[in-house]
Amino acid sequence: MTAYETLIVETRGRVGWITLHRPDALNALNSRLTDELGAAVAAFDTDENIGCIVLTGSERAFAAGADIKEMADKSSHEMTMHNPFAGLETVSRARTPIIAAVAGFALGGGCELAMMCDVILAADTARFGQPEINLGVIPGLGGTQRLTRAIGAYKAAELVLTGRMMDAAEAEKAGLVSRVVAVSDLLDEAAKTAETIASKSLPVVYAAKDALRAAQETSLAEGLRLENRIFTSLFALEDQKEGMAAFREKRSPRFGHH
Ligand code: CO8
């Protein structure tokens, strides 16, 4: 397996695990990390033996944002011509579901990275925010867009304009996170959720993710048409026949992922 400098990457059964690992910088996203993350996600996303990816950080920080020290002296031209965060597009485009398991700080690009994932499990220690305004910039990786869609215009505006952080309880109430668990249970809960997803038919999981994403990106009418087209097309799969036969025969399905 590829050696990474800023990540710990491992495979556990049908689940790919990626742990951000820049302990001295609270997992700040520098270009090395985002390149490596893009490569690690792409490798899992093209492996049909992987049915779900877990992305996590440390107990202290999921990620405290883009690396401010790396970015500080760049010109607008440099930022435009050499986007240091291009690797993250692989995360937001992945077909495989990604669970963000967040403990500690998820700030700026860290919060935006969590929002690129499909499920956000938060430890009770998690803190979310978009503090870019304090640095003289605004969010640039989805913080004004995905956050607004996740928690609504007025709450997102307050967070982006003040730069304040939300704790896990507030984030759950606002709808930013799927579930809050004790920090000691975070990785076990992420593993259980990932194994459950990975036990389903992979093409059906891809299809579900596709339809869910459409809800964020299209009009309701277009999304409903897409959902219906995907739903009917799934009757071409052996896994649909197996799933429904298993129900009739009162047994668990054995999905072959085709
Ligand atoms: N970048 C670089 N280094 C960082 C970052 C960061 N984002 N966050 C923390 N670190 C470093 C600190 O500098 C420190 O290093 P050192 O020991 O060498 O001084 C180390 O990590 C530990 O941090 P602290 O000592 O500050 O730890 P505290 O517990 O006192 O504070 C905080 C923790 C509150 C998280 C604090 O570190 C902090 O405020 N960090 C910055 C948070 C922030 O502003 N994030 C937003 C960054 S901008 C962004 O994400 C924009 C993304 C969009 C890009 C779009 C491109 C197209």
UniProtKB/TrEMBL annotation:
Can you tell me which family this protein belongs to? Belongs to the enoyl-CoA hydratase/isomerase family.
| Recorded catalytic activity of this chain's protein | a 4-saturated-(3S)-3-hydroxyacyl-CoA = a (3E)-enoyl-CoA + H2O; a (3S)-3-hydroxyacyl-CoA = a (2E)-enoyl-CoA + H2O
* PANTHER family noted in UniProt: ENOYL-COA HYDRATASE, MITOCHONDRIAL, ENOYL-COA HYDRATASE-RELATED
Keywords, A to Z, come to: Lyase
Q: Which SUPFAM superfamilies match?
A: ClpP/crotonase
Residues spanning the signal sequence: none
Q: What is this protein called?
A: Enoyl-CoA hydratase/isomerase family protein
**A Pfam family it matches:** ECH_1
Q: Which InterPro entries match?
A: ClpP/crotonase-like_dom_sf, Enoyl-CoA_hyd/isom_CS, Enoyl-CoA_hydra/iso, Enoyl-CoA_hydra_C
Organism of derivation: Microbacterium pullorum
